[in-house]
Design a protein that fits this description.
42% helix, two-stranded antiparallel sheet, alpha/beta, binds NADP nicotinamide-adenine-dinucleotide phosphate
């Protein structure tokens, strides 16, 4: 069979051929190790579940250190266009080249491809050690805005001409008093970008029959950015999902606190309070929609609640394409040692299969991985925390997941 590209239909839905071409970026540092383990698991799941009727044709993109060594470019326009053109891609972690005039390849990919939603599901895998008393109550998905807020990166150094000009302008025209010698950062947040992020979080909740979407913000202090995010969030729920959502206020006023079947409850929480509540009452939260910086903090904190970043998958999704990725960095001290935990990228691969509509293969990966960890076959990071566990290499872990999948299939 001939391999073909995945395409987006006019209504935004995906058209996925049985033999799709999917670009991948191996990543730097430990990237090649975790990618190799992930690839055999994804290919194994597709083969086990669909028995040769479906198969992914992988297309390597040279990005990061490998790209620089072979082509002289860290991230070429050609690589970005290939992702756009193929709609779905997956990547390992990339080094941020220090002092080479590049902010972060990861951030650049998200911004250039307008991947406006960073999606991080957080769910406990038994018996991974967790600081929580009842980690099995944690089952949340964070939708973090990916293009503005502090990610817009508008900053002016203290004592620079630019920061002096801005401070003078703010003082003269707006009466704002900026202390002498301040660095200045600008935090833009727009109705359009906030609304499309919240809309994708609500769509996810509706599609997956989830009970609530919580708007996380710091609107008590920053009224026209964080506070506006909250306002725009409620607005888009009313404008686009009136029949499928109710507010928390309505839940108590009209429904006596009992959620009507099929309705998603839209609520909001101030960021600091939400950090407390996800620890004390995690089962009250399902989908969290948040601006960039809050989302950065809460996604890693939630990952820690279920065993750390090595276990947390992620995706960056926009209107035109989606890039699935490990949430941790390159862990350079373990590069080439075949040692680190590939779970984050493997579960990101499962998210990718879900996104493509190959849900049976995604489910096969999740249950085989759960079974492998439950049997105490784990990489060093978990072995040092689980008594009696058998420590295996990164590649062995991938093969163990594959073997469990074959047994089940
Ligand atoms: P990191 O690469 O995430 O590693 C920090 C520590 O986390 C590691 O030393 C290790 O802890 C643990 N860890 C990370 N991945 C693991 C895995 N798969 N299995 C087990 N343990 C894992 O963070 P960093 O050292 O701050 O960043 C290194 C580079 O990665 C930087 O260039 C940074 O810019 C880049 N980065 C890239 C991404 C991305 O591509 N999305 C994200 C973050 C950072 P122990 O030492 O305790 O074993």
């Amino acid at each position: 069979m001939k391999s073909e590209k995945i395409v987006k239909a006019g209504d935004g839905s995906l058209v996925v051929p049985d033999f799709p071409i999917i670009p991948y970026i191996e990543g730097d540092g430990t990237g090649p190790d975790i990618w190799a383990a992930t690839r055999i698991v994804i290919d194994g799941a597709v083969q086990t579940v669909y028995g040769g009727k479906r198969k992914i044709d992988w297309l390597e993109l040279l990005v990061g250190e490998k790209g620089f060594d072979k082509t002289g470019e860290w991230l070429s326009d050609q690589a970005l266009n290939t992702i756009k053109d193929h709609v779905v891609a997956i990547k390992g972690p990339l080094t941020t080249p220090v002092g080479k005039g590049i902010r972060s390849l990861n951030v650049t990919i998200r911004q250039k491809l307008d991947l406006f939603a960073c999606i991080r599901p957080v769910k406990y895998i038994d018996p991974v050690p967790s600081p929580m008393k009842s980690p099995e109550k944690i089952d949340m998905v964070v939708f973090r805005e990916n293009t503005e807020d502090v990610y817009a990166g508008i900053e002016y150094e203290a004592e620079s001409d630019a920061s002096r000009k801005i401070a003078a302008f703010l003082k003269e025209s707006m009466g704002a008093d900026i202390p002498e010698g301040s660095g200045i950062g600008i935090k833009p947040m727009s109705a359009r970008n906030s609304k499309r992020l919240v809309a994708s979080a609500i769509s996810h909740a509706i599609l997956n029959h989830l009970p609530s979407v919580t708007l996380m913000h710091k609107g008590n202090i920053m009224k026209f950015t964080e506070g506006a995010f909250r306002t725009w969030g409620y607005e888009v729920a009313r404008e686009k999902f009136a029949g499928q959502t109710i507010t928390e206020e309505e839940l108590f006023e009209k429904y006596n606190g009992k959620r009507p079947e099929g309705k998603v409850v839209i609520k909001d929480r101030i960021a600091d309070m939400l950090f407390q509540q996800v620890l004390l009452r995690p089962d009250e939260f399902s989908v969290i929609a948040t601006p960039n910086l809050n989302g950065d903090y809460i996604s890693d904190a939630l990952a820690a609640q279920v065993g750390g970043l090595g276990m947390a998958p992620g995706a960056n999704i926009g209107d035109t394409c989606a890039v699935f990725e490990a949430t941790h960095g390159t862990a350079p001290k373990y590069a080439g040692l075949d040692k680190v935990n590939p779970t984050s990228l493997i579960l990101s691969g499962a998210m990718m299969l879900d996104y493509m509509g190959w849900k049976e293969a995604a489910t096969a990966i999740r249950s085989a991985l759960q079974q492998t960890v439950k049997a105490g076959i784990v990489t060093y990071d978990l072995a040092r925390q689980i008594e009696g566990a058998r420590e295996v290499r990164c590649s062995e872990f991938g093969r163990a997941v594959l073997a469990n999948m074959k047994k089940a299939g």
